[in-house]
């Protein structure tokens, strides 16, 4: 019976872990007129102490092509010569650890004979609950993609946003980048280029 409880708890943990979403955070220069920006350009990405997940052509293409689409949808036009605003991205992948919990939850009997120890008759089904406690820790990787906007005239950062998510495989992290970039630019001040 305990094995069934372990299997259920583990399955629930895996399901919830796979549904983990990207967390977004943003900040901007207060009282900044983002409507003054009509053209944009790109600075080289900032090197980080990353695990090199995003230091390849596919990751760069996923980031830049999605960002360009988002910026153009905001009314900005790409320019190599003297753009009004410059963007750059900073990829980071950290090793982290988290506690793994054990729960003494379990299922009750089901069917005409029920499940459980011994013999007997019974009908119905049930659910048992209890408390959970840490039984160890697991290591995982957490990815961050930071995108910054710099005012070209005074060379100051006027906007910054970050998308953060758990990642287990480099390929999945790279494939997730377009979705993360789109989520980041939803936080860009709406008056840009309009």
Folded structure, characterized:
By secondary structure, this protein is of the alpha/beta class. The protein has a single domain, classed as Double Stranded RNA Binding Domain, CATH 3.30.160. 26% of the residues lie in helices and 35% in strands. It is built from 3 helices and 8 strands, in the order αββαββββββα. The protein has a 6-stranded mixed β-sheet. Helix 2 links the parallel strand 2 and strand 3. The longest helix is centred in the first third of the chain and has 17 residues. It is elongated. 18% of the residues are buried. About 13% of the residues have low confidence. Keywords: Signal. It comes from Sphingobacterium griseoflavum. This is DUF4136 domain-containing protein. InterPro entries: DUF4136 (IPR025411). It holds the Pfam family DUF4136.
Describe how the helices and strands are arranged.
Elements: H1 2-18, E1 23-28, E2 39-42, H2 57-73, E3 77-78, E4 85-103, E5 106-107, E6 127-128, E7 132-151, E8 156-167, H3 170-185
Parallel strand pairs: 2-3, 2-4
Antiparallel strand pairs: 1-8, 4-7, 5-6, 7-8
Helix pairs in contact: 2-3
The total strand number stands at 8
Overall residue-averaged pLDDT value: 77
Q: Percent helix among the residues?
A: 25-40%
CATH architecture descriptor: 2-Layer Sandwich
Order of helices and strands: HEEHEEEEEEH
Shape: elongated
Major sheet: 6 strands, mixed
Estimate what percentage of residues fall within beta strands.
25-35%
Strand order of the largest sheet: 1-8-7-4-2-3
CATH topology value: Double Stranded RNA Binding Domain
Structurally, the number of domains stands at 1
Secondary structure class reads alpha/beta
CATH class: Alpha Beta
N-end to C-end Cα span: 63 Å
Structure annotation, total helices:
3
Low-confidence stretches: 6-19, 113-124
Radius of gyration, CA atoms, in whole angstroms: 24 Å
Protein name: DUF4136 domain-containing protein
InterPro entries: DUF4136
Pfam families: DUF4136
Keywords: Signal
């Amino acid at each position: 019976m305990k094995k069934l409880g372990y299997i259920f708890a583990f399955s629930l943990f895996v399901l919830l872990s796979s549904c983990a979403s990207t967390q977004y955070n943003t900040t901007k220069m207060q009282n900044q007129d983002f409507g003054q920006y009509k053209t944009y350009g790109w600075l080289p990405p900032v090197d980080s102490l990353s695990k090199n997940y995003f230091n390849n052509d596919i990751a760069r293409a996923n980031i830049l092509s999605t960002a360009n689409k988002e910026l153009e949808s905001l009314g900005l036009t790409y320019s190599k010569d003297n753009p009004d605003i410059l963007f750059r991205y900073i990829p980071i992948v950290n090793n982290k650890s988290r506690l793994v919990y054990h729960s003494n939850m379990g299922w009750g009997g089901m069917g005409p004979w029920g499940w459980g120890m011994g013999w007997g008759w019974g009908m119905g089904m049930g659910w048992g609950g209890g408390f959970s406690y840490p039984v160890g820790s697991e290591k995982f990787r957490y990815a961050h993609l930071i995108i910054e906007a710099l005012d070209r005239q005074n060379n100051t950062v006027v906007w910054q946003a970050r998308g953060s998510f758990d990642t287990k495989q480099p390929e999945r992290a790279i494939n997730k980048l377009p979705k993360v970039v789109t989520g980041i630019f939803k936080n860009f001040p709406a008056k840009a280029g309009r």
